[in-house]
Design goal:
Helix content: 40-55%
Low-confidence stretches: none
Distance between the termini: 48 Å
Keywords: Membrane, Transmembrane, Transmembrane helix
Radius of gyration: 17 Å
Strand content: under 5%
Shape: elongated
Length: 43
């Protein structure tokens, strides 16, 4: 805990393109994490 820490901003992006890219990023992360277990079964 530093008293010189900058203020935190956890707000979401407001532009539509940034929100779209964030949605695709979230979907790709979930697909790679959850789909990783089926790869050894296919091979």
């Amino acid at each position: 805990y530093s008293k010189d820490a900058p203020p935190k901003d956890y707000s979401l992006e407001s532009s539509k393109s940034a929100r779209t890219f964030s949605a695709f990023t979230s979907i790709s992360v979930l697909a790679s994490v959850l789909g990783n277990g089926i790869l050894p079964e296919i091979q």
